[in-house]
Structures are given as C-alpha cells and as structure tokens.
Amino acid sequence: MSCANIVNSMNDSNTNGSTTVEKVNASLKRRYARERRFRRMGLSAVMLGLAFVSLLFLSIIGNGYSAFQQTKVRLAISFDEQLLDPSGERNPKVLSSADYNGLIKNALRQAFPAVQSRQDKKELYRLISNGGSFRLREMVLDDPAIIGTTRDVWLSADDDIDMLVKGHIDRNLTEDDRRVKDSVIAWIDQLDQQGAVDLAFNAGFFTSGDSREPEQAGIGGAIMGSIYTLLVTLVLSFPIGVAAAIYLEEFAPQNRWTDLIEVNINNLAAVPSIVFGLLGLAVFINFFGLPRSAPLVGGLVLTLMTLPTIIIASRAALKSVPPSIREAALGIGASRMQMVFHHVMPLAMPGMLTGTIIGMAQALGESAPLLMIGMVAFIVDIPGGPLDPSTVLPVQIFLWADSPERAFVERTSAAIMVLLGFLIVMNLLAVILRKRFERRW
Amino acid sequence: MQNSTLIIVLLLLMAMAYQLGRRRSRRLAIAGGGVRSLHSLPSYYGFYAAIWSGLPALLVFALWMAFQSSIITDLVIADLPESTRQLPEAQLGLVVNDIHNLASGNIVSKDIDPVMQLAAEHYLSLQQTADAALMVVVVSMALLGFSLAWRFISPELRARNSVERVVKGLLIASSTIAIFTTLGIVLSVLFEALRFFKAVPISEFLFGLEWSPQMAIREDQVGSSGAFGAIPLFAGTMLISLIAMTVAVPIGLMSAIYLSEYASSRLRAIAKPVLEILAGIPTVVYGFFAALTVAPFIRDSGSILGLDVSSESALAAGLVMGVMIIPFVSSLSDDVINAVPQAMRDASYGIGATQSETIRQVIIPGALPGIVGGVLLAVSRAIGETMIVVMAAGLSANLTANPLESVTTVTVQIVTLLVGDQEFDSPKTLAAFALGLLLFVVTLVLNVIALHVVRKYREQYE
Is there a domain that residue B175 lies in? Predict the structure, then answer.
C-alpha cells in the first residue's frame, strides 16, 4: 500500500509542484512509526508464545512438585499379641489376616487419650491412610519377633492431612468451608510439636499402582504399561518403518502403485489420532478378538500411528546418503541388496534412529486412541506382560485429572512432570544422536 | 505360554539351520576348490536354509492361530444337544461364552448343568489336542523345510538371489502396510457407519438439530429420545476451532515473521526451540492445563465483569488448543517465508520500501498460498484434537455461537460414546463410528487440499 503511495506521490508531484523528495520525507515519520509498530507486534507474538510455555510449566510444577513428598506420622505402635496372634503359633495365615487397623486405632487412642466421643474417634482414625495396615502386616510377616514389642512407625497420613501439612488447605477459612475440621488441625499441630509429623520422599508414588485413595495412588502401574506398550510399538514400527523406507527410496519403481503408497503415508500422518483408536477397536478387538485394555493392542495401534513419522524420517536419512557411496559399492560388485544393507543403511542409521525416537516420544504422549481400546480402566495391579490389562502414563493423567480430591491435582501434576521428563530425555537423545553422528557430504 | 515357547523353538531351529547350511556350503566348496567355487557367499546358504525352515512354518503357525478358535467352537457346538443347537444365534453365543468361561475357570453367568460341564471338558480336550497338533505340525514343517534346503544346497545354487528375493518381498510387504492401514480405517469405520445409517437416516444425522444419544430402554422413559442430529456437534467443533485459529494464526504467523526477518540469531536460537517445545507436549497435559488453570481463570474474570461464564466454556478449550497449534502454524509459515527468493526482498528494498512494507506487500502475498495451506492443516489438527476438548469442553450439545457457553465436539462425543461398557450394535455406539467417518473424511479433504496448495506453491519458486 505504501509502495502505491510512493508511486502516487510521484505522480502528484508533477501536478502539485512540491518535489517527490519532500513528499517522501513527509511520509517517512509515519512509515517508520508503522515499521516500529509492526516490529513490536512481532516481538510481542514471540514473547506471548514464550509466556505460554513458561505459564504452562510454572502451573504444572507449582501444582505438582509437592507430590514427590508425602506426609508421614510417627505412631508408637504396640504389636499386641492378644490382637494379632492370640494362639501364639505364629501361623503366617493367621498373621496375614489379623486386624492391623486395630493396632493403628489403639496407637491413635493412646496418643490422644482426651478423645472420647464416637464421632471424634472416627475423625481421629481417619488421620492415618488405610494403607497403613498393609505396612504393619508386612513388618510383622517379615519379622514375627516384633510381636509383643512397641515400635515407633512412620505411617502415611490421609490425603486431607497431607494437603493440610503441605499448606494446600487454607487454615483461615471457616470450619464449614474446609475439608478438615478444627479438631483435626489441633491434633496435627500437637503431633507436629512432638516432632511426629514429617515430610518424607514419596517412593510409593513411583512404585505403586492406581488407587482410589490419593495417598496410596502411584504411577508404577502406568509406567510399566507405558513401557510394555512402547516396547510393542518399537519392536513392530522400527523394522517395518525402516523396511518400507528402504523399499520406497531404493527399490520402488516410479509408478502408480508407489505414488499411491506415498500419498497414503502422507495422509496417515495427518489423520486424527482418535480415528486410529476406532480402527483398533473395530479391527484388533472386535474382529481379531484381542483382549481389551492390553498393551499389545495399544502397541499395535500406536505402531500404525508412528509408522508415517518413522518412514518419512528414514526416507530423508536415506536420501541424504550421497549417490557416490552407492556407485562405489555397485562398482566393486555388490548386489543392490548388499549395497543397501552393507553401505547405505549403516550411514543412514543415525537419522533413522532419530526419527524413531521422535516417533516413540509421540507414542508415549498419545492418549486419545488408547481411550478407544479400553486402556482407561481403573487398574490397581501392576501389569506383568503385554497381555495384562493396564493403562499408560498419559491416560493415568487423564483419569486422575477427573478426580475431585485436591490431592489428586497434585499427583496429576507430578505424573505430568514425570511424563514430560521422559519426553525431554527422549528428545535430548534424538538431538544428541543427530549432532554426534550427523554427517554432511 | 505355549505359543511363545513355540516361537522361541522355531527361532532356535532357524539359527541352527543357518549354521548347518553355512557349514554344508563350505564343505561342498572344498570338493570344488574352495569358497570361490560357490555361487554365493557361504552365509547366503545359511540364510537360505534358515528361510526354508522358518518361513513355511511361520505361515502355518499364523494360519492355524487365525482359525483354531473358531473351528474348535464349531466342533463344540456340533456336539451340543439338539435343543441347545436350535437356539437363536444370540442365545447360542451366550452358551458358547459360558462354555469358554467354564473351560478357563472363570465365573459363569448361570448354574453349571452337566451338559455344559461336558461341553467344557470337550472344549478343553479339543484345545489340548489342537495345541499339541500345532506343536507337532510346526516343528515338522520346520524340519521338512530344512531337509529340503539341505538337499538343494549345492555350489551351483543361486542362494543369494533367492535370499534377496525373499528380503525384497518383505520390504514390499512392509511398504504396503500404509495402504492396508488406510483401507482398514475406511472399511472399519464405513461398515459400522452404514449399520448406523440403517437405524438412523443419513439426512437426520447430517442435518438434525438435536443430539442426545441416550436411547430409551423402555418406551415411556422420559428424556431419552435418542436424537442423532449432528449439527450441534459440528457447530461446537467449528466454534472451538475458530477460537483456536484466532489465537494460533496471528501469534504463529507474527512470531514466524519476527524470528525469520527481524530477530537476532541469539534470540532465534533460544526462542525457536522453546516454541517447538509447545509442539512436543502431550495433548493430555494441555487438557489438564485448560481444565485446571485456564477455565477457572476465565470463569472468575468473567464473573468480575458480570458475565455468566460456564466452567466448561468453549473459550478455555479453544484458547489452549490455539496455544497448542502455535508452533504448527509458525513452523509451516517459517518454511514458506524462507522459500520466498531473496531477490524479491532485495527488489523491494531497492525501491525504498521499509522492512515491514516489504514483508506485508511482497513476502506475505508471495507466501500466501503456502500460509493458507499451513492454516488448513492447522484447522484439520484442531478439528481432530481430542484430549483438550474431552477434558475442558462440555458434554451437552448446545447449539450456540457464544464462546462463554459450554459446547461439545465430534471427538468428545466419540470418546463418551465408546468409553466404558457398551453393547456393540446399539445405534449409540455405532453413532461414534459415523462421527469417526465424518471426521476422517473432513480431515482427509482438508489435508489433500492443503498439501496440494503447499506443493503447487513450492514449485513456483524452484
């Protein structure tokens, strides 16, 4: 538009008598202002983008970092023989079905003798996570000799107490607006003064499976599910992707069939992921009768999804190997197959691996198609193989994000941090691989 | 795991065949005057033997696996008493299911009667026979194949050519998987969608204004009309995509322009990868961010302004989706901006245009087809995006253009219809496949147009 202005002003200058230079000079201020404005717009767009990145990370980390710690409460548990093993035979069967919750209740009653009413006692018992009894059972089964003694044991607190200790529950609110009652806060403060409340590293978060109780829920099962799913994906998609790329790049004749394959690959790369889920549901589960929720099916679906990525990257890697390598190999009498597998493929391997890692990173973050094939079930057990029902890390995040408890917000954010950690490591690996082995001819 | 043992046994046999084949070729070569007398290198004779022993056996194994269960089930049904066999198909299916469960020690739906017990035992014994037979057949196939290869191996055998032919066949097979995938998507979605259109006319689906997929179980049930008009879903999808594009296109385009035309190399080296991070973040993370941070923020700021904002507003989902698409738009525009020849810039500067004038009047018009193609690709991403809308947008199908209200999208409905328990032939589940078909077709058309535009434009300058 201002180009046109210049031309116009040139024409005008003949009629108006003022020189072109004057006209241009007069417009310069306006044009420079516009230049500055445009530049500022560009800069603010970049800054806005960067701000989104930092906002996203800050909000996730701010919400989630505390989940790596878990509030523990120290209780003096007396392993009462009367309660655990009245017959004194130390029979493992009797020991494993004994009432360990009773031990915790006794210990709590002893710590707070003033609590008398039924209602208050009920509140008191809820201080400790009901996973505590499993912990005690393990201790007794490991070493039955501790029966009859009194030990100080650190037990996980209930999720509400956990939130209170971490400061996620506002103590200034009125009692009715809070999830925790005044009396509970007083008990916790009392315990805290005795040094019996502590924040410890939350190892259970990484090792245990899902649970309805936030303080017992962990991402161990989801991580194993993700590993099995990715393993299936890798085992299938890497060889198939590389083989397809080699055929298309080195052997395929230029004809309609090859064109059709190429068009298909390019289109599959842009098909919404949920459509792959529909394919998995209709073909793998309903037609072939494979088990629902299994990492095997998830891996198959993700294979189909990541194949285009791997094929496209591998083809680019093969293309970057110079023709002289091929000609040299053929010249000393190698067959075409030998030329490809002995000379071209090893040189293209870093590029192929980079593409595969990026494809795997995509597969690790994918959740929509897995919802379709039933990997959203609530699964407590840690899967032991690719046919066991399981869930994956992103779907676990999706499941937890739906839970109303405040403690699950924290855990969801922490699971996201773990997921992003894995993704960053994978992408760094790809970058390093590319930097280290990339050759330019 | 009987099958995995079988596979391992087969792999071991193949490894053995490789070794034996190689050794045999070397031994044969001694007579003819060393390795040179062989047609191919010794290892090719090894591969030749391994392929002969492995490939036919694997094929038999795969075919057997595909048909074993249906043949056994048929045999068991044929053995059931006449009265049971006369049952209608659905009930027979239930009986068969019970037999399966009984045989594998699971919980059975009703009391076990002797007939069932007998059938289950029959099933188990057939299964055991079949497993044993499979083992014998596969292993003997492998041995047979190997003995044939042993017989064939001679110095004149063109072992390399045969091996390379098999390898080439595998390469071709791998490359056709893309076609089978597309075919699989089209067929699976199309068949279920056609079944859906038998129950619900296609015109009602495409042009109906009401969407409430809950089917009435009883005739007189209230509020379960089972209406399958998809217009509200299209409107919701369009609304959210529109919001996403109004965020992503200006920011993505402007940052691409700034980074490629103005920014110092230091800023570019930092800002570009950081923006690319946005592309690598899983969508479920965006969904969580939208539901937990953005949606409450919009609702609260709306209530300060006196607006009634839904907690699942289209605005929240659209904004976050826009952020997700920024790097997509910016990297595609970056490509096309860089493809504009330097000569055009120089010409523009030469007649005295400022940098922004050059960008606005020379570069952008020159790159416009590419940018449009990129935007179309971004739209297809936005339409197909699932997790953000599942977590941050609503479920109720409102026909509205107000971004502060809650709307639902095609992908959200697919997920809600298919997640959880489902009977597979109710219109409710089939509707998900009809929506999937629609989604596939729309994104396919957008992609084809976009790729075509981008490619055509690129050729102009090359």
Answer: no
Asked whether residue B185 is assigned to any structural domain, the reply reads no
Select from B157, B192, B217 the last residue of a domain: B157
Per the structure, the complete domain to which residue B88 belongs is given by: 2-157
pLDDT in tens, A318-371: 999 999 999 999 999 999 999 999 999 999 999 999 999 999 999 999 999 999
Residue B212 lies in a domain: no
Distance, CA of A91 to CA of A64 (rounded, Å): 43
- The domain boundary, picked from B135, B157, B179, lies at B157
User: CA dihedral defined by B267, B269, B270, B273, rounded to 10 degrees?
Assistant: 140
At A261-281, the pLDDT tens digits run: 988 898 888 899 999 999 998
Q: For B378-408, write each residue's pLDDT tens digit.
A: 999 999 999 999 998 887 788 888 888 888 8
B164, B357, B439: residue with CB nearest A335: B164
The answer to whether the CB of A5 falls within 8 A of the CB of A31 is no
Residues B262 and B116 in one domain: no
Q: Does A248 touch chain B (CB under 8 A)?
A: yes
Tell me how crowded residue B430 is: count the other CB atoms within 10 A of its CB.
Answer: 23
Q: Is B73 on the interface with A (CB under 8 A)?
A: no
ipTM: 0.87
Task: Tell me if chain A has a CB within 8 Å of the CB of B379.
Answer: no
The answer to whether residue B336 is domain-embedded is yes
Which domains are assigned to chain A? 2-64 (no CATH), 67-205 (no CATH), 220-437 (1.10.3720.10)
Query: What ranges in A247-294 are assigned the alpha helix state H?
Result: 256-268, 273-279
Q: Is the pLDDT of residue A12 over 70?
A: no
Q: Which of A24, A31, A274, A306 to mutate to test the interface with B (most CBs of B within 10 A)?
A: A274
Question: Which residues numbered 287-346 in B keep a CB inside 8 Å of some CB on A?
Answer: 287-289, 291-293, 323, 326-327, 330
Six token digits for residue B31: 């007579």
